[in-house]
Amino acid sequence: MDTAGQTGTVPSSDLVELLQRVGSRDGRLVHLEVISAREGRTAEWPAWADPDLVAGYRALGVGAPWVHQVAAADAVHAGRHTVLATGTGSGKSLAAWLPALSAVRGGPREARPRTGSIASYGRRPTVLYLSPTKALAADQLAGLERLLSAAQIRDVRVTTCDGDTPLTERDWARDHADVVLSNPDFLHYSLLPGHRRWQRLLSGLRYVVLDECHAYRGVLGAHVALVVRRLLRLARSMGGDPTVVAASATTAEPSLTAARLIGAPEEEIVSVTEDSAPAGRRTLALWQPAIVGGWPGEGVDLPASDGQDEPLSSGPRRSATTETAELLADLTAAGARSLAFVRSRYGAEVVAEQTRARVREVDPDLPARVAAYRGGYLPEERRELEQALRTGDLLALATTNALELGVDVSGLDAVVMAGWPGTRVSMWQQAGRAGRAGADGVAVLVASEDPLDAFVVHHPETVFGVEATTFDPANPYVLAPHLCAAAAELPLTDGDLPLFGLGGTELLEELERRGLLRRRPTGWFWDIARPERPQDLTDLRGGGEPPVQIVEAATGTVLGTVDGARADSTVHPGAVYLHQGRTFVVDALEDDVALVRAESDVSYRTKARSTSSVRVLSVRQTSEWADRDGTTVVWRFGDVEVTSRVTGYDRRRLPGLEIVGSYPLDMPERVLPTTSVWWTLPESACEAAGVGRDTLPGALHAAEHASIGLLPLLATCDRWDIGGLSTALHPQTGQPTVFVHDGYPGGAGFAERGYRAALEWVRATSDAIVSCGCADGCPACVQSPKCGNGNSPLHKEGAVRLLSLLLRCAPNGPGPD
């Protein structure tokens, strides 16, 4: 949800010309798509709207609302759950705040004392706004304060309340705030468990605003849906009757997404999807990094891929981060205000560092106008960066997707995306940061070293269209801990079963058998004798481990945080850590703290090495594929235990990242209980297919990597949401085996989706490897950026032969040669 702002500073035609000039030299500019401008359509202000609010909007330059804003606001005002799914910069905020703030102002000035009834009569209406990120909530607060100031409204009290909010400010929010801006994490860990202290807010709750709800997909989406349902349940029990208004980017089936978030029938949701806001001309460039010099261009003799006249890759290419830094430097030198979206925190720091180095050669003052922005920064540092970007003090910002979701950074000229963001929605959200408020904008998608990226830039048609946001609140691994939390908040009864998608009491009875719930005549209660808090049974973001603080040893300054699950591989002793262009080396990692020291001259980076093993706990489903010769491939899906340990790290010299040294580490084992899909086949069949004992480990390893890279085509996941293991002889299966498992405790449904779509998955994996023109395997086919074994061993041709064997055995397969 965003507000209007100033336009860009450099004509988009000049930036397009720059991209064509740079990209035409060696074919890096694969495709250029131009989307025509669109005029806006306005409507009259609703008669029910508070006149002071209308005057405030007019003072801010909104003379008349867009047609879609009025359609959504009318539905919300009428008490209908509403989802507004329109493009970036279409002013979705107004559709929520106009009815919400009008209701607050139209209610009693102060809540009347209760007289024993929990009815909401006489209570001052309240509003709760939820966003995926703290940055977006802070941005919305700034926008609301500008609106209320312009409207000269002083009787509406607005504040943010999240994990960074001091206790005294939380007390004020509980006692006085009419509008509270927060996030699902704060609800889960603080507000809902302490709901009795928030009774004033909940009993008067009139509207719940779910911003950027398309971001809630996969495991996070399932968690957030259950948090929202718990919120609505408590509010209704206290006499509130909240109407939900959801804001989303353009997606397929937005009403279904909203219905699944709040646990309501789809027919009860009003969906507004026609975007009537003006839009400038948008230019999207699809970009593939240059091939590294010296590549011989010789390929192995592999069969042609269906529908592919030419291979998607003909050799190793420069990294997407290096290419992005170069483009960002070119744009900065041209005076453009730009964002670069990078997939990882480390990558954002690297892009900012490389961009500073490049622009320093043009103007020694330009590096000060380039910065990084990512999770793990302290709140005050994030706010300073956001403000500097708004004012233009910063020209370039390398960021993670933390700035994808609605933060008002109007006036940008260009966006560069380092790698496919994972979904079309995310890509257009990121691209839409440029050219907001009807201005022209330019966006560049730089393909990373990933099979999906190579496919996308060579198939522009895959970029367009819309997709549904998918998540499964009924996943028992996600649902069970939320049922425990709900029972602690208010005893569960049979009347709550439909809200949580339960057709019966089986899951509740299982929780009772495990000693988590107790059954009484009045419902299901949390067992208060247990030592843990029910909200601590799950982590909305999927990690499950506390964050590790990164502290500068010499000063005691907290530089940031890193997820606990990633700490062993990112801030182990000896690791290089980057923070806003400064380089640190980790001295120690203990007690959830990484102690670092500043180093001004570090000519290397570090990458961890690890080992892992998979133990099968139970098999839930089994299927067999067999050809006419009797060769049988067995597919299984079930519960596994993944044990991993970081064993050492490599130092890699800049800029080429060649290994210059390897060092051992003594780190603890990490055990992940999860779900997996795996397939096995006889060693004799592998030999008959031309994959002998010497090449079998590398062939299985390559097939595993490619499978992980292609599963996101079929499941709503990212390759970082899943992991895998391959072995020529697994101790439990007794055969060559490939595992692909979910990366979340208890599973997330991705591996199960792979099991159900096994044939389509194998075909896509085989095609991706065959269509790549490299000789021995590259990041666009069988190499993996997350491999703990340094991508060794790998055997590309062997992987093709194994996958061909699987397809020969598959139902309706080609049969034996």
TrEMBL record:
It is an enzyme of class 3 (hydrolase). Residues 298-321 are annotated as: Disordered. Its EC number is 3.6.4.-. It comes from the Bacteria. Residues 326-479 form the Helicase C-terminal domain. Keywords: ATP-binding, Helicase, Hydrolase, Nucleotide-binding. GO terms for molecular function: helicase activity; hydrolase activity. This is DEAD/DEAH box helicase. It comes from Georgenia alba.
